[in-house]
Amino acid sequence: MDKLAQQSESVIDNYLVSRNQVGGKLALATVTASAMGGWTLFNPPEAGAALGGITAVLGYCLGTAMAVFTFAFVGPRLRQIMPWGSSLNEYVRNRFTQQPHHRRIASLLYWLVVAVMLLYMFVYLTAELTVIIQVLKQQLSWSALETSLAVMAVIFLYTAIGGLRATILTDAVQFMLIVPLLVVCFSTTAWALGGLGSAFEPVLENSPELLSLGNIGGLRFGATLLIAITAAEIFNQANWQRVYACRDEQTVRRSFSGSALVILPLIFIAGLLGLMAAGKNFQTSTAFFDLLASLSVPGWVQFAIIMLALALVMSSLDSLLNAITAVLTLDFLRLTRKLGDRDESQALIVARAITIAIGVLAIQIATEGHSVIFLFFIADLLCAALVFPVIFSFYNRHQSALNAFWSSIVGLALGVLFFPKPDFSPLFNVPGGGDLLNSFTVALLASAGLTLFWTKVDKNNKNSGVAGFSYRELRGMRKSSTDSVESATLGAAES
User: Fold this and answer.
1) In degrees, to the nearest 5, what angle opens at C-alpha 248 toward C-alphas 243 and 252?
2) Residue 18 dihedral angles phi and psi, to the nearest 5°
3) pLDDT tens across 50-78, in order?
4) Alpha-carbon distance 400 to 397, whole Å?
5) What are the φ and ψ backbone dihedral angles of 418, each rounded to 5 degrees?
6) 424: how many CB neighbours lie within 10 A of its CB?
7) Under a CB-based contact definition with an 8 Å cutoff, are residues 288 and 217 in contact?
8) Segments forming the whole domain that contains residue 160
9) Backbone phi, psi, residue 433, to 5°
10) Would you state the pLDDT for residue 31?
11) Euclidean distance between CA atoms 479 and 485, whole angstroms
12) Which residue among 9, 240, 356, 382 is buried most deeply as judged by most CB within 10 Å?
């Protein structure tokens, strides 16, 4: 029975992790493709056209690149301390359970991390599906249901069957489409406007502040994005899957740092499309597509744009579907072990069923036209409050579950004071209220400050009851040998 359980777990590991199987250019391609979604054709152009101009575009560039670059450091670290693992939530569960009197808090922290991961990834998934619905409705007059069913059916075909390995292989194809097609879209748009000089001349004449690096509004917007994207992407399981899929730690460093360098110019090009649109008075999230509709571009250009949008959306949709499935399936496996079911042969079927169920739910929300932008902001705030306490535990063995949980809660509570309502009016009547930058910054700094102070106190107080965590024991754990969190900790101590 144990042999059968190990074999089934190996199947699940290949399906959800593809451990140590990806290297070289393929690693770079999958990291880049999964990081760039359909939002590339909407958000950076809108930032350039209406939300601060060139400084806001640079904020998108730096935010997206920094989020990826961060994994060049935290990715290898997690592989070092938990080489058998596969996810951030799995790490949190095993890291914060060594103190018996803190297990209840550790459990709360674990479920908080799981909830934040699922919220962020599902909102992201729904937003990406909404993006392709908008594109194909404008370009081909397809209905929302037709678009979502067609796109998701193709993704289901290879994602549910092949798992992460199939997703990574398709990422390579999508990456080879994204880069040249984005360049083609930019160059043909500039050509249709009479060249680069003519394309930006109306902006210089009518809205010169959009091209100013001293634009305060753009700088604030850029800083908001830098915090929000970097914090949120830590809780995107798609990134951690690729950390463990890379052949070794050096591959992780090279692929994520290289991807950050590739992403910078690509996002900048997308943002410049928005600046071009601003010259024609298009200043919404569809600024680039509104600009194209006003120009006489050849049919092949429209086809290239559709292909670009599909490649961008599918590269993130399949990654997010796999990532959400991984988080949910790991808890399903833990539950079956806890109930004494050592035969996990049904786990792969369950994983595939979860993939399809999540996709169907996303289709329903996207086709009904619900906006998820405010949910994105809520998820970003949660991530900003949680990110430092969680990542700090990678490096400091004196941090306790009590510390991490309450530091996150305090940071979240203080961040909420400055958070806006859905209409972006202040939620609370405090100075600086209703401002996302203030909210995210306060949440991040408050949780970080309390984490550092509390850890120092625990380290210096011998009567605190907090024993230093052993990363060596975590490395020695075998997740296939645990029936629960408690037995995992005891088993590691005995080994």
Assistant:
1) 40
2) 50, 50
3) 777 888 888 888 989 999 999 999 999 99
4) 8
5) -105, 5
6) 12
7) no
8) 2-376
9) -70, 155
10) 94
11) 10
12) 240
> For helices 249-278 and 54-81, what crossing angle results, to 10°?
170
The 3-state secondary structure of 55-124 reads HHHHHHHHHHHHHHHHHHHHHHHHHHHCCCCCCHHHHHHHHCCCCHHHHHHHHHHHHHHHHHHHHHHHHH
Residue 165's CB is within 10 A of a number of other CB atoms, namely 18
Percentage of the chain modeled with pLDDT above 90: 31
Specify the pTM.
0.88
Task: Count Cα atoms within 13 angstroms, Cβ side, for 418.
Answer: 18
Confirm if 234 and 74 have CB atoms less than 8 A apart: yes
Domains: count for the chain: 1
Which residues neighbour 295 within 8 Å (Cβ) at sequence distance 6 or greater? 189, 192, 193
Q: Where are the alpha helices (DSSP H) in 234-371?
A: 237-245, 249-278, 287-294, 299-338, 347-367
Q: Would 161 be classed as within a structural domain? A: yes
Contacts of residue 173, defined as CB under 8 A and 6 or more positions apart, other chains included, come to: none
Positions in the chain short of pLDDT 50: 1-8, 339-343, 479-495
Q: For position 490, what pLDDT does the model report?
A: 32
Name the residue among 135, 180, 177, 115 with its Cα closest to residue 45: 135
Rounded distance between C-alpha atoms, residue 399 and residue 455, angstroms: 5
Residue 33 lies in a domain: yes
Residue 133: what pLDDT? 86
Residue 432 lies in a domain: no
Tens of pLDDT, residue by residue over 213-223, are 888 888 888 89
CA proximity to 329, closest of 12, 106, 85? 12
Q: How far apart are CA 382 and CA 360, in angstroms?
A: 26
Question: Coil, strand or helix: which one is 246?
Answer: strand
| Greatest Cα-to-Cα distance within the chain, rounded to the nearest angstrom | 75
- Record the tokens describing residue 403, joined without a space: 């510390």
- 135 in a domain, yes or no? yes
Taking alpha carbons only, the member of 70, 202, 133, 181 closest to residue 364 is 133
Q: Which pLDDT score is estimated for 407?
A: 96
Residue 307: alpha-carbon gap to chain centroid: 23
Which amino acid does the sequence have at 393? S
Cα 35 to Cα 179, 282, 318, distances in angstroms: 13, 27, 12
Distance CA 210, CA 349 (A): 52
pLDDT at 467: 64
Residue 486 CB: number of other CB atoms within 10 A? Answer: 12
CATH number, domain containing residue 272: 1.20.1730.10
Residue 194 gets the label, from left (phi > 0), alpha (psi -120 to 50) or beta, of left
Neighbouring residues of 338: CB distance < 8 A, sequence distance ≥ 6:
483, 484
